[in-house]
Design brief:
Pfam families: DnaJ (PF00226). The protein is an all-alpha fold and 336 residues long. It contains 14 helices and two strands; from the N terminus they run H-H-H-H-H-H-H-H-H-H-H-H-H-H-E-E.
Protein backbone atom coordinates (compact mmCIF):
# COMPACT_ATOMS: atom_id res chain seq x y z
CA UNK A 1 0.00 0.00 0.00
CA UNK A 2 1.27 3.44 -1.00
CA UNK A 3 0.16 6.89 0.08
CA UNK A 4 -1.19 7.41 -3.44
CA UNK A 5 -3.59 4.49 -2.86
CA UNK A 6 -5.43 6.42 -0.10
CA UNK A 7 -8.57 8.18 -1.37
CA UNK A 8 -10.69 9.14 1.64
CA UNK A 9 -10.91 12.45 3.48
CA UNK A 10 -8.24 14.98 2.54
CA UNK A 11 -6.56 12.46 0.24
CA UNK A 12 -9.57 12.91 -2.08
CA UNK A 13 -8.32 16.46 -2.69
CA UNK A 14 -4.73 15.28 -3.35
CA UNK A 15 -3.63 16.43 0.11
CA UNK A 16 -1.47 13.99 2.08
CA UNK A 17 -2.85 13.74 5.58
CA UNK A 18 0.15 12.38 7.48
CA UNK A 19 -1.70 12.91 10.76
CA UNK A 20 -4.41 10.45 9.70
CA UNK A 21 -1.78 7.88 8.70
CA UNK A 22 -0.31 8.04 12.19
CA UNK A 23 -3.75 8.25 13.83
CA UNK A 24 -3.23 11.70 15.30
CA UNK A 25 -5.26 14.91 15.58
CA UNK A 26 -4.07 18.00 13.70
CA UNK A 27 -3.20 19.60 17.04
CA UNK A 28 -0.69 16.85 17.97
CA UNK A 29 2.60 18.11 19.42
CA UNK A 30 6.04 16.91 18.19
CA UNK A 31 6.25 14.77 21.34
CA UNK A 32 2.88 13.15 20.57
CA UNK A 33 4.02 12.50 17.01
CA UNK A 34 7.22 10.81 18.15
CA UNK A 35 5.52 8.61 20.77
CA UNK A 36 2.81 7.50 18.35
CA UNK A 37 5.40 6.70 15.71
CA UNK A 38 7.48 4.60 18.09
CA UNK A 39 4.39 2.62 19.06
CA UNK A 40 3.48 1.93 15.43
CA UNK A 41 7.07 1.15 14.45
CA UNK A 42 7.31 -1.43 17.24
CA UNK A 43 3.99 -2.93 16.16
CA UNK A 44 4.88 -3.16 12.46
CA UNK A 45 8.64 -3.80 12.41
CA UNK A 46 9.61 -7.32 11.20
CA UNK A 47 11.59 -8.04 14.38
CA UNK A 48 8.74 -7.17 16.73
CA UNK A 49 5.60 -7.79 14.67
CA UNK A 50 3.20 -10.32 16.21
CA UNK A 51 1.48 -11.45 12.99
CA UNK A 52 1.06 -15.22 12.68
CA UNK A 53 1.71 -15.58 8.95
CA UNK A 54 4.70 -14.54 6.90
CA UNK A 55 2.41 -12.75 4.45
CA UNK A 56 0.98 -10.51 7.18
CA UNK A 57 4.44 -9.79 8.56
CA UNK A 58 5.64 -8.72 5.12
CA UNK A 59 2.52 -6.58 4.68
CA UNK A 60 3.16 -4.90 8.03
CA UNK A 61 6.77 -4.21 7.05
CA UNK A 62 5.67 -2.67 3.74
CA UNK A 63 3.14 -0.44 5.49
CA UNK A 64 5.82 0.70 7.91
CA UNK A 65 8.22 1.66 5.13
CA UNK A 66 5.71 3.05 2.62
CA UNK A 67 3.18 4.77 4.88
CA UNK A 68 4.26 5.21 8.49
CA UNK A 69 7.91 6.17 7.94
CA UNK A 70 7.15 8.89 5.32
CA UNK A 71 4.36 10.26 7.53
CA UNK A 72 6.68 10.56 10.52
CA UNK A 73 9.48 12.03 8.40
CA UNK A 74 7.15 14.79 7.19
CA UNK A 75 5.81 15.61 10.65
CA UNK A 76 8.77 15.41 12.99
CA UNK A 77 10.78 17.99 11.03
CA UNK A 78 9.62 21.53 11.82
CA UNK A 79 10.13 22.79 8.27
CA UNK A 80 8.09 20.02 6.65
CA UNK A 81 5.41 20.11 9.34
CA UNK A 82 4.89 23.85 8.79
CA UNK A 83 4.59 23.19 5.07
CA UNK A 84 1.87 20.63 5.80
CA UNK A 85 0.05 23.21 7.92
CA UNK A 86 0.21 25.72 5.05
CA UNK A 87 -1.34 23.19 2.66
CA UNK A 88 -4.01 22.38 5.25
CA UNK A 89 -4.81 26.09 5.55
CA UNK A 90 -5.23 26.37 1.79
CA UNK A 91 -7.51 23.35 1.44
CA UNK A 92 -9.64 24.39 4.44
CA UNK A 93 -10.12 27.81 2.85
CA UNK A 94 -11.47 26.07 -0.27
CA UNK A 95 -13.74 23.69 1.65
CA UNK A 96 -15.08 26.05 4.34
CA UNK A 97 -17.79 27.66 2.15
CA UNK A 98 -19.20 24.27 1.11
CA UNK A 99 -18.93 22.40 4.43
CA UNK A 100 -22.59 21.35 4.43
CA UNK A 101 -22.24 19.79 0.98
CA UNK A 102 -19.21 17.66 1.84
CA UNK A 103 -19.61 13.95 1.11
CA UNK A 104 -18.80 11.95 4.23
CA UNK A 105 -18.37 8.18 4.47
CA UNK A 106 -20.28 7.38 7.65
CA UNK A 107 -22.22 8.49 10.70
CA UNK A 108 -19.12 9.24 12.83
CA UNK A 109 -17.85 12.20 10.74
CA UNK A 110 -21.44 13.40 10.17
CA UNK A 111 -21.97 13.42 13.93
CA UNK A 112 -18.81 15.48 14.41
CA UNK A 113 -19.89 17.92 11.70
CA UNK A 114 -23.20 18.51 13.52
CA UNK A 115 -21.60 18.97 16.95
CA UNK A 116 -21.45 22.51 18.31
CA UNK A 117 -20.93 22.79 22.09
CA UNK A 118 -18.24 20.14 22.63
CA UNK A 119 -16.72 19.99 19.15
CA UNK A 120 -13.02 19.97 20.15
CA UNK A 121 -13.50 17.32 22.83
CA UNK A 122 -15.53 15.08 20.53
CA UNK A 123 -12.91 15.44 17.80
CA UNK A 124 -10.08 14.45 20.15
CA UNK A 125 -12.05 11.54 21.59
CA UNK A 126 -13.03 10.16 18.19
CA UNK A 127 -9.45 10.31 16.89
CA UNK A 128 -8.15 8.58 20.02
CA UNK A 129 -10.79 5.83 19.83
CA UNK A 130 -10.22 5.09 16.14
CA UNK A 131 -6.42 5.19 16.52
CA UNK A 132 -6.48 2.37 19.10
CA UNK A 133 -7.66 -0.17 16.53
CA UNK A 134 -6.31 1.55 13.41
CA UNK A 135 -3.54 -1.00 12.70
CA UNK A 136 -5.22 -4.09 14.16
CA UNK A 137 -6.65 -5.30 10.82
CA UNK A 138 -4.35 -4.18 8.01
CA UNK A 139 -6.88 -5.20 5.35
CA UNK A 140 -9.13 -2.35 6.56
CA UNK A 141 -6.34 0.17 7.11
CA UNK A 142 -7.12 2.33 4.06
CA UNK A 143 -10.74 2.73 5.17
CA UNK A 144 -9.71 3.66 8.72
CA UNK A 145 -7.13 6.19 7.53
CA UNK A 146 -9.79 7.71 5.26
CA UNK A 147 -12.19 7.98 8.19
CA UNK A 148 -9.54 9.62 10.39
CA UNK A 149 -8.74 12.03 7.57
CA UNK A 150 -12.40 12.98 7.28
CA UNK A 151 -12.39 13.91 10.96
CA UNK A 152 -9.24 15.99 10.41
CA UNK A 153 -10.87 17.62 7.39
CA UNK A 154 -13.95 18.58 9.42
CA UNK A 155 -11.70 19.97 12.17
CA UNK A 156 -9.80 22.12 9.66
CA UNK A 157 -13.00 23.39 8.05
CA UNK A 158 -14.60 24.29 11.38
CA UNK A 159 -11.38 26.00 12.46
CA UNK A 160 -11.34 28.04 9.26
CA UNK A 161 -15.02 28.91 9.62
CA UNK A 162 -14.26 30.19 13.14
CA UNK A 163 -11.45 32.38 11.81
CA UNK A 164 -13.66 33.78 9.06
CA UNK A 165 -16.44 34.35 11.58
CA UNK A 166 -14.14 36.43 13.75
CA UNK A 167 -13.11 38.52 10.76
CA UNK A 168 -16.72 39.09 9.72
CA UNK A 169 -17.69 39.80 13.33
CA UNK A 170 -14.99 42.45 13.59
CA UNK A 171 -16.24 44.10 10.43
CA UNK A 172 -19.79 44.31 11.75
CA UNK A 173 -18.94 46.06 15.02
CA UNK A 174 -20.42 49.35 16.18
CA UNK A 175 -17.64 51.29 14.52
CA UNK A 176 -18.89 52.65 11.25
CA UNK A 177 -16.82 51.43 8.31
CA UNK A 178 -14.76 54.01 6.51
CA UNK A 179 -15.82 54.45 2.90
CA UNK A 180 -12.97 55.24 0.57
CA UNK A 181 -13.81 58.11 -1.77
CA UNK A 182 -11.58 58.47 -4.79
CA UNK A 183 -10.42 61.95 -5.63
CA UNK A 184 -11.67 63.28 -8.96
CA UNK A 185 -9.06 63.58 -11.69
CA UNK A 186 -8.93 67.20 -12.74
CA UNK A 187 -7.70 67.86 -16.21
CA UNK A 188 -7.18 71.27 -17.70
CA UNK A 189 -8.45 72.23 -21.10
CA UNK A 190 -5.80 73.72 -23.40
CA UNK A 191 -7.19 77.21 -23.00
CA UNK A 192 -7.45 77.00 -19.17
CA UNK A 193 -3.82 77.52 -18.30
CA UNK A 194 -4.66 78.40 -14.69
CA UNK A 195 -5.42 74.75 -13.79
CA UNK A 196 -2.07 73.42 -15.06
CA UNK A 197 -0.61 73.19 -11.57
CA UNK A 198 -3.55 71.08 -10.33
CA UNK A 199 -3.36 68.67 -13.25
CA UNK A 200 0.39 68.23 -12.80
CA UNK A 201 -0.06 67.36 -9.12
CA UNK A 202 -2.69 64.74 -9.99
CA UNK A 203 -0.50 63.23 -12.71
CA UNK A 204 2.48 63.03 -10.35
CA UNK A 205 0.29 61.36 -7.72
CA UNK A 206 -0.86 58.75 -10.25
CA UNK A 207 2.67 57.99 -11.43
CA UNK A 208 3.99 57.15 -7.94
CA UNK A 209 2.35 53.72 -7.54
CA UNK A 210 3.87 51.89 -4.56
CA UNK A 211 5.19 48.38 -5.17
CA UNK A 212 3.35 45.89 -2.97
CA UNK A 213 5.15 43.43 -0.68
CA UNK A 214 3.74 40.60 -2.79
CA UNK A 215 5.36 41.98 -5.94
CA UNK A 216 8.66 42.49 -4.11
CA UNK A 217 8.67 38.87 -2.90
CA UNK A 218 7.87 37.52 -6.37
CA UNK A 219 10.58 39.69 -7.92
CA UNK A 220 13.07 38.57 -5.26
CA UNK A 221 12.15 34.93 -5.86
CA UNK A 222 12.77 35.34 -9.60
CA UNK A 223 16.24 36.68 -8.88
CA UNK A 224 17.00 33.78 -6.54
CA UNK A 225 15.86 31.27 -9.18
CA UNK A 226 18.08 32.91 -11.80
CA UNK A 227 20.99 32.67 -9.35
CA UNK A 228 20.24 28.95 -8.73
CA UNK A 229 19.26 29.52 -5.12
CA UNK A 230 15.94 27.60 -4.77
CA UNK A 231 15.95 27.61 -0.96
CA UNK A 232 15.89 31.41 -0.84
CA UNK A 233 13.23 31.49 -3.57
CA UNK A 234 11.16 28.99 -1.60
CA UNK A 235 11.27 31.25 1.46
CA UNK A 236 10.10 34.30 -0.51
CA UNK A 237 7.29 32.42 -2.27
CA UNK A 238 5.97 30.88 0.93
CA UNK A 239 5.64 34.39 2.31
CA UNK A 240 3.98 35.48 -0.95
CA UNK A 241 1.21 32.86 -0.77
CA UNK A 242 0.63 33.77 2.88
CA UNK A 243 0.04 37.39 1.84
CA UNK A 244 -2.21 36.45 -1.09
CA UNK A 245 -3.49 32.87 -1.19
CA UNK A 246 -5.11 33.61 -4.57
CA UNK A 247 -1.98 34.74 -6.39
CA UNK A 248 -1.69 32.44 -9.40
CA UNK A 249 1.87 33.59 -10.14
CA UNK A 250 3.06 32.96 -6.57
CA UNK A 251 1.57 29.45 -6.49
CA UNK A 252 2.91 28.63 -9.96
CA UNK A 253 6.43 29.75 -9.08
CA UNK A 254 6.29 27.96 -5.72
CA UNK A 255 5.25 24.77 -7.49
CA UNK A 256 8.11 25.15 -9.99
CA UNK A 257 10.65 25.56 -7.18
CA UNK A 258 9.33 22.41 -5.52
CA UNK A 259 9.79 20.58 -8.82
CA UNK A 260 13.39 21.82 -8.92
CA UNK A 261 13.85 20.21 -5.52
CA UNK A 262 12.25 16.98 -6.78
CA UNK A 263 9.27 17.46 -4.46
CA UNK A 264 6.59 16.40 -6.94
CA UNK A 265 3.61 16.19 -4.50
CA UNK A 266 3.96 19.76 -3.22
CA UNK A 267 4.80 21.00 -6.70
CA UNK A 268 1.61 19.45 -8.05
CA UNK A 269 -0.54 20.97 -5.29
CA UNK A 270 0.63 24.54 -5.86
CA UNK A 271 0.63 24.35 -9.65
CA UNK A 272 -2.89 22.88 -9.70
CA UNK A 273 -3.93 25.67 -7.33
CA UNK A 274 -2.46 28.23 -9.76
CA UNK A 275 -4.29 26.63 -12.71
CA UNK A 276 -7.55 26.85 -10.78
CA UNK A 277 -7.00 30.57 -10.18
CA UNK A 278 -5.80 31.67 -13.64
CA UNK A 279 -5.07 28.99 -16.23
CA UNK A 280 -4.26 31.56 -18.94
CA UNK A 281 -1.42 33.25 -17.07
CA UNK A 282 1.91 32.66 -18.91
CA UNK A 283 3.74 31.81 -15.68
CA UNK A 284 1.03 29.30 -14.79
CA UNK A 285 1.15 27.72 -18.25
CA UNK A 286 4.92 27.34 -18.00
CA UNK A 287 4.66 25.73 -14.56
CA UNK A 288 1.92 23.41 -15.79
CA UNK A 289 4.15 22.25 -18.63
CA UNK A 290 7.01 21.66 -16.19
CA UNK A 291 4.68 19.55 -14.06
CA UNK A 292 3.61 17.46 -17.04
CA UNK A 293 7.23 16.80 -17.95
CA UNK A 294 8.09 15.90 -14.37
CA UNK A 295 5.13 13.54 -14.02
CA UNK A 296 5.94 11.92 -17.35
CA UNK A 297 9.53 11.37 -16.28
CA UNK A 298 8.55 9.94 -12.89
CA UNK A 299 6.08 7.51 -14.45
CA UNK A 300 8.47 6.02 -17.01
CA UNK A 301 9.41 2.86 -15.16
CA UNK A 302 12.18 4.02 -12.88
CA UNK A 303 14.24 1.17 -11.49
CA UNK A 304 15.53 1.12 -7.98
CA UNK A 305 19.32 0.92 -8.17
CA UNK A 306 19.71 0.11 -4.52
CA UNK A 307 21.04 -3.36 -3.81
CA UNK A 308 19.79 -5.19 -0.76
CA UNK A 309 22.36 -6.72 1.47
CA UNK A 310 22.32 -10.41 2.21
CA UNK A 311 20.34 -11.63 5.19
CA UNK A 312 23.45 -13.19 6.64
CA UNK A 313 25.31 -9.91 6.81
CA UNK A 314 22.24 -8.21 8.31
CA UNK A 315 22.13 -10.77 11.08
CA UNK A 316 25.84 -10.32 11.78
CA UNK A 317 25.47 -6.54 11.96
CA UNK A 318 22.43 -6.81 14.20
CA UNK A 319 24.40 -8.60 16.90
CA UNK A 320 26.79 -7.00 19.33
CA UNK A 321 30.09 -8.45 20.53
CA UNK A 322 28.35 -10.60 23.16
CA UNK A 323 26.16 -12.25 20.55
CA UNK A 324 22.99 -10.45 21.69
CA UNK A 325 20.67 -9.04 19.09
CA UNK A 326 20.63 -5.25 18.99
CA UNK A 327 17.29 -3.45 18.74
CA UNK A 328 16.44 -2.16 15.26
CA UNK A 329 16.64 1.59 14.76
CA UNK A 330 14.43 3.77 12.60
CA UNK A 331 15.52 7.37 12.08
CA UNK A 332 18.19 6.60 14.69
CA UNK A 333 15.60 5.67 17.33
CA UNK A 334 15.91 2.17 18.93
CA UNK A 335 12.58 0.37 19.15
CA UNK A 336 13.35 -1.13 22.57
Amino acid sequence: MLISDLKGGLFKYEVKDYYAILGLPISASPKDIRLRYLKLAYQLHPDTNQAETRENREKASTILSKLVNPAYENLYKDKLRKECQLIFSEISMRLAPMAKEMTLSGEIPKKLLREEANFNKMYQDLIETLAKEQYQDLSKLAVKIGLLSELNMIYLVRQKQGELGKVMGGASSNVEPKIAVSEPIITAAPEQSGNTGVSQQVEEKEEKVPVSRLEKLISSAKNHIEQFNPDAALFDLREAVKIDANSAVAHAMLGSVYLLQNNLPYGRIHINKAVGIDSNNPTVKKAQEELKQKEKKSSTGKTDGKKTESKGSDKEKSKDKKGKKEPPKIFGIPLW
